[in-house]
């Protein structure tokens, strides 16, 4: 059966039926009857939603759908409240005192049975009436297989690795030539400030070109400071100015001050520097009228790029003869065809269109009108379809229908709308989640997956043993593969996701129609109606008065909050007892009230980047909690009650760092008490302070068989031996961080007899006598950090042949005089960071070593006198950072040495970007 918004409700009733022993007498029968009613009405609902996607429904049918959603919400409420009742009853009945209370509880039990039975009976009556009205509106049971959007939860899912196959910016055909034109304007322009305006309709590629130029390492050599600002329609000038100052000063905190003061600060910091600023997605000329006062015209060779859809704005920005407008045109049919084939046939036919599909494909490409976003979206959709004329004709017919239905819209919104409607229900719920976030918001991929799981969007397959997290990753990868979600890698580790503003427009339209989420922006409601989710931008003052008494709310999100009032927190905990998600990351919150324990239904709690110092003992009452994020908070210790959270899957705790260096004094981890081993569902445990914990606590970690990410800080030699045994039993581990209590004590890790074979990232910050042999067996390892090891023997022999290693960082790792990179070693390594190798004098790089290396950093080698000549063998090197090296070393790289001595610049002249410090 295809999925609808009733599917998770039916699943919840199945879970409730499983509580046969605990269900009150008579309630079990009512629950089964209700489930039967829903399964009967579900085919009618599928028919209604299919007609809705085609615009074939009347106003009455839309009301019918809204009433069905309201009934689904009522059922979810009844089930959640009953689960709460069961949990409370079980707690009361434990022990002798509990048995004495049973008599007194009989009256409450009778009341609970009566209330729940009455509510279910009333819901069933509402369902029968809604079903009858649906028949009168012409709705019929949907027949499986009659729509391309019908999907089964057990159907084969996309490989999660497909996310990595999303087209990178420099893969986009047609972008390179335009990017080069913009780069030439930056390089060959005047000696004063100049502005380049990229103008064109949405989806033409303005942001892609600007970002490609902004990130180009050749371009970045020409400037001293950079800032990227996404302006959008709802910009705040004060926040824009603060962000710019923070970026160009590379400050941790945003500056204070009113707009006039911020403008003066920005002028002061930028007037003597060669800067490049990008203002992306400018909608109003008022923005530039203020901003130009902060950017002096006489600044030497300063460059500004503006992207906009408005030609008038682009022309009005031209204040000097040196400013110019670059108008982006629709792609030629030839370029459009190349991109289409690259996306639609990426996994088959060697990227070429089969002859029998050429005619239909040409008609589909012509619908895109040369706009790359539309081409990529429809090609991504078709890549999931069978490569038959019948299936592609269906897509063309549906596209024609979409175009005829909305003739006033341009091709991009039409195709994006069609791409949304083509999604199966479970992916629609997931893509709509991006409507909760502010415009151009970047969200971490694993954070998004945890939120989807907490919302019950993720349905575990009945045919395999994949975790909910793995299924969620597959959902995200499919959205990426369909070109509806894009991602960018930050720091080489994280995958940050976002949606294009045109896709977000489609999403927000559906969010409003479905009452999916209520958005309150500076105390203004975005949509009418009540919703399960509340997203608040800017301030919480008076928000609950604006929202009203909406007890339906299950998820609350805070973004860019200036002030978090005490009354807001108190009211949230009192009014919304059935909350599932609290996303308060970055909010100005310093205290977590004990009333948090009343939110029995809470599954996701994020207090990262707040100043919360203590977690109340009442946290132990949150038996449904799956994710607790206290990363970069002020929490130093967790209460013993944490061990009661039997459903906890992710515990991420790390105190705020005071300084950004590699010292072991920086990260101290968090104290966790005995009993952590009882949390057998844990997949993430970051970051535990080993000292002054006991060996017994570390032994408990052996019970955490599902752990994927583990961080242990303040490790001692004694505890290290016990920890090694525990790690050997963690077969699912993918990320491991071990940091010692000091840089002196030797930690013995040879006791890890059976290393986790799935390990992808390893960080060892401790003194080691020698490199553990088992590291050479980590065939899936992608990233390795080794700090303070102080080996006397060269460590590379253990890791040079690891087949998937792309990143290596070393800090005080090796005290020897010579490093040798042998021919054929490190075949996939892209980034190598070497810091504070105090004894190093010579570095040898054989031809054929490090063939894919792109970034190399050399930092603090006091005994190395000159750049190794072998660096010329690194033909793929794009970036070379040279920090705190001896004066003789740096002077030797000067191409025009005044003393007449030999320059070694020829060794590195092939590297596009070189930075000295």
TrEMBL record:
Residues 436-507 form the Disease resistance protein winged helix domain. Pfam families: LRR_14, NB-ARC, Rx_N, WHD_DRP. The keyword Hydrolase does not apply. One of its GO terms (biological process) is defense response to other organism. One of its GO terms (molecular function) is ADP binding. Residues 5-93 form the Disease resistance N-terminal domain. Residues 180-346 form the NB-ARC domain. Residues 553-881 form the Disease resistance R13L4/SHOC-2-like LRR domain. InterPro entries: Apaf_helical, Disease_R_plants, LRR_dom_sf, LRR_R13L4/SHOC2-like, NB-ARC, P-loop_NTPase, RX-like_CC, Rx_N. The keyword Repeat applies. Keywords: Nucleotide-binding, Plant defense, Repeat. CDD domains: RX-CC_like. This is Coiled-coil NB-ARC domain protein. It comes from Parasponia rugosa.
């Amino acid at each position: 059966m295809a999925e609808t918004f009733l599917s998770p409700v039916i699943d919840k009733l199945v879970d409730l039926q499983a509580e046969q022993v605990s269900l009150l007498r008579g309630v079990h029968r009512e629950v089964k009857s209700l489930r039967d009613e829903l399964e009967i009405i579900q085919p009618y609902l599928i028919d209604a939603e299919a007609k809705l996607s085609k615009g074939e429904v009347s106003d009455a049918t839309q009301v019918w759908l809204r009433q069905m959603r309201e009934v689904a919400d009522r059922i979810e409420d009844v089930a959640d409240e009953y689960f709460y009742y069961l949990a409370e009853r079980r707690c009361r009945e434990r022990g002798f005192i509990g048995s004495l209370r049973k008599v007194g509880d009989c009256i409450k039990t009778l009341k609970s049975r009566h209330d729940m039975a009455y509510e279910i009976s009333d819901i069933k009556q509402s369902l029968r009436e809604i079903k009858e009205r649906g028949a009168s509106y012409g709705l019929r049971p949907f027949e499986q297989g009659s729509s391309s959007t019908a999907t089964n939860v057990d159907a084969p899912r996309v490989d999660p690795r497909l996310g990595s196959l999303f087209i990178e910016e420099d893969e986009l055909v047609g972008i390179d030539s335009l990017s080069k034109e913009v780069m030439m304007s930056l390089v060959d322009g005047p000696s004063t400030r100049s502005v380049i305006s990229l103008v064109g309709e949405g989806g033409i590629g303005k942001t892609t070109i600007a970002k490609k130029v902004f990130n180009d390492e050749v371009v970045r050599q020409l400037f001293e400071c950079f800032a990227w600002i996404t302006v959008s329609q709802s910009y705040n000038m004060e926040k824009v100015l603060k962000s710019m100052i923070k970026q160009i000063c590379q400050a941790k905190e945003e500056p204070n001050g009113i707009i006039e003061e911020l403008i003066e600060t920005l002028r002061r910091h930028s007037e003597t520097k060669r800067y490049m600023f990008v203002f992306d997605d400018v909608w109003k000329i008022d923005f530039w009228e203020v901003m130009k006062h902060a950017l002096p015209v006489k600044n030497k060779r300063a460059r500004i790029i503006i992207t906009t859809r408005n030609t008038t704005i682009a022309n009005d920005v031209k204040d000097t003869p040196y400013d110019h407008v670059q108008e982006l045109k629709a792609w030629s049919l030839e370029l459009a065809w190349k991109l289409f084939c690259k996306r639609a046939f990426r996994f088959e036919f060697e990227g070429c269109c089969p002859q029998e599909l050429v005619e239909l494909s040409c008609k589909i490409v012509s619908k895109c009108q040369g706009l790359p976003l539309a081409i990529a979206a429809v090609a991504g959709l078709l890549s999931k379809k069978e490569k038959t004329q019948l299936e592609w004709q269906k897509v063309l017919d549906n596209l024609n229908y979409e175009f005829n239905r909305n003739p006033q819209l341009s091709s991009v919104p039409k195709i994006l709308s069609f791409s949304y409607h083509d999604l199966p229900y479970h992916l629609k719920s997931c893509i709509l989640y991006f409507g909760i976030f502010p415009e151009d918001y970047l969200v971490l991929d694993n954070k998004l997956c945890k939120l989807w799981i907490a919302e019950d969007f993720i349905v575990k397959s009945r045919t395999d043993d994949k975790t909910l997290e793995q299924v969620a990753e597959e959902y995200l990868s499919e959205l990426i593969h369909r070109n509806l979600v894009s991602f960018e890698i930050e720091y080489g580790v994280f995958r940050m996701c976002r949606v294009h503003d045109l896709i977000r427009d489609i999403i927000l339209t559906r969010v409003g129609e479905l009452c999916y989420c209520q958005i309150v922006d500076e105390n203004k409601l975005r949509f009418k109606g009540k919703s399960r989710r509340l997203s608040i931008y800017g301030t919480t003052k008076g928000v609950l008065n604006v929202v009203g008494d909406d007890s339906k709310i299950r998820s609350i999100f805070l973004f860019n909050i200036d002030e978090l009032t005490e009354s807001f927190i108190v009211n949230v905990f009192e009014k919304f007892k059935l909350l599932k998600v609290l996303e308060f990351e970055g909010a100005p919150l310093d205290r977590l009230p004990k009333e948090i324990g009343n939110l029995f239904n809470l599954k996701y709690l994020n207090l990262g980047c707040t100043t919360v110092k203590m977690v109340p003992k009442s946290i132990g009452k949150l038996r449904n909690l799956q994710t607790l994020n206290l990363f970069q908070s002020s929490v130093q210790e967790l209460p013993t009650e944490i061990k009661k959270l039997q459903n906890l899957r992710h515990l991420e705790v790390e105190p705020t760092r005071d300084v950004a260096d590699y010292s072991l004094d920086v990260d101290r981890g968090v104290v966790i008490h005995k009993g952590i081993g009882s949390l057998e569902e844990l997949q993430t445990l970051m970051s535990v302070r080993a000292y002054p914990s006991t060996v017994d606590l570390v032994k408990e970690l052996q019970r955490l068989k599902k752990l994927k990410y583990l961080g242990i800080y303040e490790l001692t030699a004694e505890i290290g031996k016990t920890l090694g045994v525990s790690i050997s039993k963690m077969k699912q581990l993918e990320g491991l961080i071990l940091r010692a209590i000091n840089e002196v004590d030797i930690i013995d890790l040879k006791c890890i007899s059976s290393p986790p074979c799935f390990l992808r990232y390893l960080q060892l910050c401790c003194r080691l006598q020698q490199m553990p042999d088992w590291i050479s067996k980590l065939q899936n390892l992608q990233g390795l950090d080794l700090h303070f090891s102080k080996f006397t023997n060269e460590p590379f022999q253990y890791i040079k042949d690891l087949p998937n290693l792309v990143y290596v960082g070393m800090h005080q790792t090796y005290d020897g005089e010579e490093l040798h990179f042998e021919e054929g070693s490190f075949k996939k390594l892209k980034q190598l960071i070497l810091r504070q190798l105090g004894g190093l004098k010579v570095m040898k790089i054989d031809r054929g070593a490090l063939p894919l290396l792109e970034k190399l950093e050399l930092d603090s080698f006091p005994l190395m006198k000159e750049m190794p000549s072998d660096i010329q063998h690194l033909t793929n090197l794009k970036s070379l950072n040279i920090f705190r090296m001896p004066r003789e070393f740096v002077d030797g790289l000067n191409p025009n040495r005044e003393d007449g001595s030999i320059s070694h610049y020829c060794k590195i002249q092939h590297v596009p970007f070189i930075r000295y410090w």
